[in-house]
Amino acid sequence: MNKLTSNKTRSYFLALVIGCFSILSGCATNNEALQSSKVSATTSPDYLIGAGDGLNVIVWRNPEVSMQVTVRPDGKISTPLVEDLVADGKTPSGLAREIEAKLSKFIQSPVVTVVVTTFSGPYQEQVRVIGQAAKPAALAYRQGMTLMDVIIAVGGMTEFAAGNKSNIIREEDGKQVKINVRLNSLLKDGDISANIPVKPGDILVIPQSLF
Fold this sequence. Notes:
By secondary structure, the chain is of the alpha+beta class. The protein contains 4 helices and 10 strands.
């Protein structure tokens, strides 16, 4: 084998090795991304039932004890054969298992599904909007909720609102903190940097303009 052929062989081998490393590196990166997405999916919090939520309680093959109910202000529900069961703060599947346990005294191996049809969420997790909102309201918190979502839900602000002087009142480490928010910048100027995330229990206060 002459020197030129030897150099070509070494170059080909080196290129092959680099290609293999690139493929393995890409696989590792894809695996890491997949694992990360799986972790994110598994750590997403389950919805918790709150007072005012509408529930459809379905007992398989037993329509006579299936019904739609609204969670009362005391956080409880009543269905046929099951009275005054606490629903507030529980997941739909957790509540279904409790109803099954109650019904098992009357029905053999009951299978229950609880479907949330209208959402309010636990009282302590609701996002409240007061002041110069078009429709002041208490909103059920949703994962990933932002300031823009809140303002859309309450129909925007009144003409008298001082949007850039608004504040979010938030509890952190047992203390209330005030966070200034720029609603005018967000809604009128399209400044997306003003679209901050909100947290469960936040209170958005929109003051009235003095002029």
